[in-house]
Structures are given as C-alpha cells and as structure tokens.
Design a protein that fits this description.
Pfam families: PX. This protein is of the alpha+beta class. The protein is built from seven helices and three strands. It has a three-stranded antiparallel sheet with strand order 1-2-3. Helix 4 packs across helix 5.
Length: about 160
C-alpha cells in the first residue's frame, strides 16, 4: 500500500497595504506602509505581525541583506523615481506593489530569511539604528525578545483600531 504522507507546507503571506502620508503638508512628509505578515514557518518568531515602514527603511534593509547574502541575489526594490508622470496616488500604488513583490521574494529565500535584520524589520517597530544595535548585541533586548515584546504589546493591532475615525 502506498502510504499517505502529509507534509505541512510552510506558508508565509506578506502584504504591503494602507499607504499613509505622515507629516502631511510639511517639508519632511513621507509615506509609510503597513506590512502584514502571517506565517506558519518555524523561521519566524511571531506567527502574525503588523508594522509600518517607509521606503527609506526598505532601501536600508535591501542594502544590509545584500551585504550578508554573499552571492545570493537580493530582489530589486521599485525605483526611487523623483520624476514621475501621473498622479501621486498612482505612484504610491505602484510603489506599494513593488515593495510587496520585494518582500514576497525575500521571505521565500532561505539565505535572506536567516538575517535577523529582516525579522526585526518585519516583526518589530524598532528603528533602523535600533535594529543595528540589537543585531550587534548592543540593544537592551535580544532579537527574539524584541519581536516577542512587540507581539505581546499588540501595538500593531491596537494602533490600527484607534486610528479609525
């Protein structure tokens, strides 16, 4: 008899959603995006998470991944076009799609998944300098603690509820 083998497939869903303009109308306004992650993969500390990141942080992440991945190619980010024909909304939507495709490819790559900076980027609200400090062991928490702390605090979810009119 053929034996039925059930393999639990590891699935990771990552979505880039809900672009918001921060500091609107000021010279230092920028757009940030909600990154929602849902997974059953053992690679991740938290099974679901929700953080907000801006394009500049994605650029930093990609640079770090590249440094550590050796010869493994890191997916591309959508271009940093300062000159764009069309509406801002269209530009933001194109960028959102590009950022989502970038993350989808990254989380499917075993080598990139082993980089703890990626995990802190996706599953904690630490800033870039705080992520660097944490990875180098100079933060007050370990990588896992920082992620669990954020998951337990539930800020990712609470913040969403409160910000609705």
């Amino acid at each position: 008899h053929a034996q039925a083998v059930f393999v639990l497939q590891e699935l990771t869903t990552v979505r880039v959603q809900d672009p918001r303009v921060q500091n609107e109308g000021s010279w230092n306004s920028y757009v940030d995006y909600k990154i929602f992650l849902h997974t059953n993969s053992k690679a991740f500390t938290a099974k679901t998470s929700c953080v907000r990141r801006r394009y500049r942080e994605f650029v930093w992440l990609r640079r770090q991944l590249q440094k550590n991945a050796g010869l493994v190619p890191v997916p591309d980010l959508p271009g940093k076009s300062t000159f764009f024909v069309g509406s801002t909304d269209e530009f933001i939507e194109k960028r959102r799609q590009g950022l989502q495709q970038f993350l989808e490819k990254v989380v499917q790559n075993v080598v990139l998944l082993s980089d703890s900076r990626l995990h802190l980027f996706l599953q904690s609200q630490l800033s870039v300098p705080e992520i660097e400090a944490c990875v180098q062991g100079q933060g007050s928490q370990t990588v896992t603690e920082a992620i669990l702390h954020y998951a337990m605090s539930n800020c990712g979810w609470v913040q969403e509820e409160e910000s609705r009119p």
